[in-house]
């Protein structure tokens, strides 16, 4: 009884309050550090070019102006020939969201395939999984020549279809590798029971695997989407027409050339960060749940 009463001692209560306060303080510091670059971009975009270049990055503007945002959104086709970010942003969203979803879905199918053949054909499963891992960690830059040859031979160069094909080639293996980490959290006796009841692999995948794999699926989708959104090499390699460039390449216009107009560069950075930020704000909880499910599966829960 003495040990039980000790749990309600005032010093234990104050210790828990102090521990909670410290954790909240650390979390607040991490959030501030995470938001600081975006804040610097935003306040820099609201300044004049001279103020953005000469004043501290975190100092708010003395007189805010939306001129830089208007410029990078609509572009300026005269002497400078800068493409506005409105249509590249729309094209990026229309391509990246469905391709990330498709790559994640096909990756989940691949992970399920290796999961069920692990017991039947261990060697072949290990070899196939090693190939997927190699494809995932292979830098895109090392495949420049074969990638251009494949896309050109299919008459897809300088088209969005070529970019989509390249995205699928690189991100399906990555999705399969990530989802395979979540797959062991699904008890195999559920698959065996479904097999006994006469369910096909296709039925098991959709009726058993996918409902249990939702946290891992969404986590993989978010990560894949962010990787595709931030990809600069594939769009600049496979699309040479300035009127068809994607957002990652269009943003680069405002940070290169013979001079840098700082406030417009900051505004372009903000526009390029909006969609990933919104995606993470609304789906971030699912990303955390996926990581929690991963931890539970790793412990055999």
Task: Give an account of the 3D structure.
The chain has a two-stranded antiparallel sheet with strand order 1-2. Mean pLDDT is 82; it is low at 297-301. It is flat and about 70 Å long. It has 2 domains: 2-65, no CATH class; 82-298, MetI-like fold. By secondary structure, the protein is mainly alpha-helical. The chain has helices at residues 2-6, 10-45, 49-54, 67-74, 86-117, 122-137, 144-153, 160-182, 188-196, 201-212, 214-230, 233-238, 247-252, 262-298; strands at 75-76, 82-83. The chain has 14 helices and 2 strands.
Give the helix/strand layout:
Layout: H1 2-6, H2 10-45, H3 49-54, H4 67-74, E1 75-76, E2 82-83, H5 86-117, H6 122-137, H7 144-153, H8 160-182, H9 188-196, H10 201-212, H11 214-230, H12 233-238, H13 247-252, H14 262-298
Antiparallel strand pairs: 1-2
Q: Helical proportion?
A: over 70%
CATH class of the largest domain: Mainly Alpha
Extended strand count: 2
Counted by DSSP, the helix tally is 14
What does the oligomeric state look like here? single chain
CATH fold node name of the largest domain: MetI-like fold
Computed over alpha carbons, the radius of gyration is 25 Å
- The CATH architecture of the largest domain comes to Orthogonal Bundle
Brief digest:
With about 300 residues, this protein is mainly α. Helix content is about 75%, strand content about 0%.
